[in-house]
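# nightly structure sweep
# worker-07 picked up a monomer target from the shared queue
# config: single-sequence mode, recycle default, output format = structure tokens
# input follows
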Amino acid sequence: MNTNTAKPENWRKNFYLFLVGQLLTGVTSMIVQYATIWYLTLESGEESVLAIATLVGMLPMAILSPFVGPFIDRINKKILLISYDAIVALIALGLFIYGISNDVYPLWMVFITIGIRAVAQTAQMPTIQSIMPTIVPKHEITRVNGQFGMIESLVFILSPGIGAFMVAAFPIHWVILLDVLGFILGAGMLLLVKIPEVSTQGEKIAVLRDTKEGFDILRANKPVWKMTLISALFILLFMPAMSLYPLVTTKYFGGTIVHAGWVEVLYAAAMLVGSFAVGIFGKVKDRMPWIIMAYLVVGLTIGGSGFLPGNMNGFWFFLILNILAGIVGQIYHTMRMAIMQQSFEPEYLGRVMGIVSALMSFAGPVGLIFAAPVEDYIGVQNMLIIAGFGGILAAFLLYVTPSVRNYDKVLQKKLKNQSKK
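# output follows
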């Protein structure tokens, strides 16, 4: 059995090198992503163009996620991460060269770029998730997931504003060049990180067989499988309202696009606070009550927002409720991820995480497909009530399923016994 190989005396330095490298690539990549959206908005001004861009960015994850796991488990993970960023950097360099002599990018070129970036990002997150348990002691995995969540939150806070500023201040091809800078800095940091090999590294890849094996391994762990399905159901009900958040602010509460921006920024800042809390205080003996509580609070705050009066007084309460939802939302996200990382051996984790990503990725687009027509029929504020029901339902299902509710107690006991051997 492959065990965690991270050494207690040096794992922190190794992990923080990894964390800083992901921050550098994450910020530059997300700035370019937001800048691309701003560019499309300014150049076309058509909702259909933005809708197509969103779909192009989401489809690769929904389609390819189940099949990336076999590559993650068989190929050197450091090489994989560098390769993802290298592909994005090469595309950025090509766009930069084109932009030197052309003022405007054709839409088809932008869509292809978004699609290629989405393919790289599809494999990136499961790779990172499968690396974490190999470089961090298992008893620290919840806290370091919280710290990683802080990095993600910082990226979401900084990127939109910087992206908008740079599109306004510089030609778009200079902004795109940030991807190359991010690759150089991130790859340089990653080369310093020690990532242990797993027992399956170097074995022959059989995509369909390995993907099925990952699915079977996930299903064999009944509590984790049920928890994953409940999370996917939550996303299915929650995502439509999230995609319509700007309309909630402008159409229902009567605010401006600036007010909508406040909601996004403060929600991301609240996520940062939640990640910080998990990163500092995350070593709890039983995480399931916290996860259930977080789903319930998110459901009550977001669902309750749909009952607020449709005016600016209601908007200020909406802002406060979103701050609370952002804080607790990171609790269920980071703790659930830590439980999954501890539940499977490192040599299978890439395949398992690929399947989990696929289930979550399919739930999001399916929900988004119905978002606009349903909103037109019932009103955007009632979409918040549906999202809130999704959170309350997830909390209820987790609580009334004994094998899931008590799973972390069983898992912690198992890990404790393993550490004594």
